[in-house]
Design goal:
382 residues, alpha/beta, seven-stranded parallel β-sheet, six-stranded parallel β-sheet, 13 strands, 18% strand, globular
Length: 382
């Protein structure tokens, strides 16, 4: 790369918006700043209309980070704001406009901003892409994807499934870089301390289902698997923690728990988990289970690597690319029988401790530095 100080404008979620996407964009901004770049984040005045947001709140009340320049100026439902921001970027001529793309809902907004910014013939639009095909499908998906994806100069993708889907829309340059490890949640705490903070019994053993609860994530499969797993008396003191806010019907899952007779086995912490609490869940759990029915990749696996908490994933999307089977966890078919068998195997002998130790080595490949290296490499090609 040139020694000239690059100017980077990041368009996407950031404080006060909550969740993993905001954490990702802020971490990348810090990495670029560490490299000496001039970085500004342009985030939302409105991300989702309340009618389209299934959770309780989109934002947090914590103070804004004082080490980042974050400006709220983009409304996803106001074309006037798209034009204003796009024209501002065209005049400002940043070297890179970096966007995060995870849902076609963002396409009209992001695509318009990207098209306007590129008109200065200097700015390159780079997209770190999570998904092409969304988990919940809509009639407008193809049209919206086409509009946005063809406005981008280059892509960084995080799974081969996404790369294949991307090629249905564009031949723009694309580079693979795996989802970096989440480091913003701090390190592990002692298990007893974590259990005490969560109000759970440290004498019992815990598996964890973590994250926003949507139907495609397979919680129903895990509940059926847990019912099979607990038939073995050896696992009488094992419990399942479900931690995350419901973005689907809570009632049907509660009814499913009751139908299986798992009321004493399933601990529901069904609310948005604040960043400060995440470490307690991953320190208390023996393992994490991601029984997804569909997937591209998952940020939860990267939280597991941060805390060296072994993980069970299903063989869908790019999950098996991130979790080497039999080294840091198990990859299984997305069935109750498959997940139950993986739960039994991961609790045998010293498997958990061996997997945790292997994670310390494997996680070295999931650095934010590597992700930013990929973006620099891509920019040099454009």
């Amino acid at each position: 790369m040139s020694e000239r100080k690059l100017k980077v404008a990041i368009v996407g979620p950031a404080h006060p918006y909550r969740g993993g996407l905001a954490a990702i964009m802020q971490t990348m901004a810090r990495e670029f700043q560490h490299r000496g770049y001039d970085v500004e984040i342009l985030t939302f005045t409105l991300q989702y209309p309340s009618l389209l947001f299934p959770g309780k709140s989109q934002t947090v009340d914590t103070p804004a980070p004082d080490d980042l320049s974050i400006r709220r100026c983009v409304s996803t439902i106001s074309p006037l704001s798209w034009w204003r921001v796009g024209r501002e970027l065209r005049r400002a001529k940043p070297d890179i406009v970096l966007m995060k793309y995870w849902t076609p809902f963002m396409a009209p907004c992001f695509g318009t901003i990207a098209r306007l910014a590129r008109k200065n013939r200097k700015t390159k639009v780079i997209c770190q892409i999570d998904n092409v095909k969304p988990h919940e499908h809509h009639l407008t998906d193809h049209l919206f994807n086409r509009y946005f994806l063809r406005s981008v100069d280059g892509f960084v993708y995080m799974s081969e499934q996404v790369h294949g889907e991307l090629r249905e829309y564009t031949s723009a340059p694309a580079i693979f870089s795996p989802h970096p490890m989440f480091e913003n949640f701090g390190g592990r705490v002692e298990r007893e301390e974590a259990c005490r903070s969560l109000g759970i019994d440290a004498s019992q053993r815990y598996a964890l289902f973590f994250g926003l609860i949507r139907d495609y994530k397979g919680l129903d499969t895990l509940l059926d698997a847990w019912h099979l797993f607990k038939r073995d008396a050896r696992y009488a003191n094992h419990r399942l923690i479900v931690a995350g806010e419901f973005y689907t019907s809570r009632e049907k899952y509660v009814a499913h728990i009751e139908r299986l007779g798992l009321q004493g086995d399933v601990i529901l912490h069904d609310h948005f988990i604040a960043d400060s609490e995440v470490r307690n869940y991953f320190s208390a759990a023996d393992c994490v289970v991601l029984p997804y029915k569909t997937a591209t990749q998952s940020g939860v696996t990267q939280i597991c690597y941060n805390f060296c908490t072994p993980v069970i994933v299903t063989n869908v999307g790019g999950l098996a690319e991130i979790v080497p089977d039999g080294r840091v966890g198990y990859v299984t078919e997305p069935t109750a029988e498959g997940v139950a068998d993986a739960l039994r195997r991961i609790n045998e002998g010293d498997t958990l401790s061996c997997f945790a130790e292997a994670m310390r080595e494997e996680r070295k490949r999931f650095s934010w530095s590597a992700m930013c290296d990929a973006i620099e490499e891509l920019y040099a090609q454009l």
